[in-house]
Design brief:
mainly alpha; two-stranded antiparallel sheet; 16 helices; 2 strands
Length: 393
Amino acid sequence: MTDSLNRYTWVDCVRSMLTILVVAHHSALAYTTFARFESQRYIDSTHPIVDSQRNVCLDIFQNFNDIFFMSLMFFIGGLFLHKSINKKGVKKFIEDRFYRLFIPFLFVGTILMLIAHVPAYLMGHNSFEVYLYLKDFFIHEKWPVGPPWFIGVLFIFNVFFAFLSNILRRLSFSENGLYKIANRPFTLILVLIVITWILYVPLALKTGSDKWGGIGPFEVQLSRILLYFGYFLLGAQVGLSNMNSTIFYSKSIMLNSWKGLIISAIFVFGLMTIIGQFKFLEQLVQNQIIGLDLAWIIYYTIFACSCSMSCLAIIYLFRKKIAASNWFWNSLSQNAYMIYLLHYVFVIWMQFGLTNVAIFPITKFLIVFVCSLILSWCSSIILRKNKWIAKYL
């Protein structure tokens, strides 16, 4: 596609790939070795369905996704905001986001989550009555939002950005500056790591890495709220330029270093995995070589490095390799939003159906992942034949 259309084929492909990773991520969570199920309140579980069969390889896969993919989703979500506001105006932009994000999040998301979480309720209560289930869902479980949390937070970010767009435009990066930094790989990497560290590490030290919080269905991982908003703003500021001739210029040193970026991303994630699996930092704390706070700072710093390197590696890989779209990427891109909304229902019910099936956990994961992706994809194609759904979803 041409830049005159303000679209970039490779960006659509990154977004579509991330949607596939989301489906795979949720498909794997039932089979990780750290999975646990809380029968008294299933929302406190690591996942609504937890299988007795586990595999550590799925821990590694899940951890890799968790480090970077939502940050990159928010970055991609911000790329075309300025262009959209210029085209529609602030009022029309917010109205569009209300129908495209808020309505699907609050109403469609709630209905889908009510369907999706029935198996978790059954596992905890061994019985089902509609009234008791609804009471448990909204009062005891406090309205579990599931994957649509991203859509709700993205809506808030969009509205906040719309009111500040003129101010942020004045603070935008110059195209000349973006062009220069694309030819200085170490500078770009260092800048992103420092930004990621500032946005993530201090807050993670204060809140812990796993705690969620919010109001009603609006929930987010507290340690990452600044990280997500920061990446969202970075995407918006980068999107002000002609990206394909500045930060993602086809002949830039950064782009031609894509293989090195991938190797570096794998190395940093491998380092984080080894430290986590063999509990090196815990041993240092127990031996009183370092303090607990310093141990967490080291671990979170490696997290920030891994997040930054993985985001850069994925972006520049797709920028380098995706030159034109095809039927697969076109269809996936058109249906990615609906796949994101729908997949959780298929994932949870399929995991529930396989709980007593004696097969390898990786086989279960593959069955759940492939079937959930295909079913949500096909459902999206059918549903989007409706003009209203196709317009907003």
